[in-house]
Amino acid sequence: MYSQRYPHGDTFVFQDLKRMSGELRRDLSRFEPERVTTDQAASVFEAAAEMELLAGSLKLLAARRAAESRTWAKEGHRSAASWVAQKSKSSYGEAISVLETAEQLVSLPHTTEALKDGKLSRSQVKEVTQVASFTQAPRPSCSRSQPKGL
């Protein structure tokens, strides 16, 4: 994580992310699918799929800390989920899912590493965290208590 390498954050990393976002926006506005070959379109698709995977992973990793920042309240939102939904242009339910998944990742270091390595997508991580929360939940006792007095 950035805090391990950059105790005070690295403004260059954040500037790079903003720059890359601007470049992608520019490239997207210029892209005309009918003007490229089918092989080029396949290459664009593959590159976009990888960028989507990595960007989704980065967004998921940042979500919990972003919610802690309370930027959402400063911007007039009633909840972090409302802010996430607005920033992601997603539904409120999807935003809640992102925040819940991000929270679960804290206790799943191997899953977090797989996400960072691009081995798991955000939706796959959601499935893993749901299973993990189910298996980590306290279970009721299976033993039957004996009635008193018998």
Instruction: Count the E strands.
Output: 0
- Mean pLDDT figure: 87
Distance between the termini: 60 Å
Number of helices: 8
Shape: globular
What letter string, H or E per element, gives the SSE order?
HHHHHHHH
The percent of residues in helical segments reads over 70%
Weakly predicted, low-confidence segments: 142-150
**Radius of gyration (Å):** 21 Å
State the domain count: 2
For the largest beta-sheet, the strand count, sense and barrel status come to: none
Structural class: mainly alpha
Strand content: under 5%
How are the SSEs ordered, and which strands pair?
Blueprint: H1 2-5, H2 11-30, H3 38-68, H4 71-74, H5 80-88, H6 92-105, H7 109-116, H8 122-136
Question: What would your notes on this structure say?
Answer:
The protein is mainly alpha-helical and 150 residues long. 70% of the residues lie in helices and 0% in strands. The chain folds into 2 domains: 1-32; 56-131, no CATH class. Helix 3 (38-68) crosses helix 6 and helix 6 (92-105) packs across helix 8.
Key terms:
0% strand; 150 residues; mainly alpha; globular
How do you describe this structure in short?
This protein is mostly helical and 150 residues long. It has helices spanning 2-5, 11-30, 38-68, 71-74, 80-88, 92-105, 109-116, 122-136. Helix 3 (38-68) packs across helix 6, helix 5 (80-88) packs across helix 6 (92-105) and helix 6 packs across helix 8 (122-136).
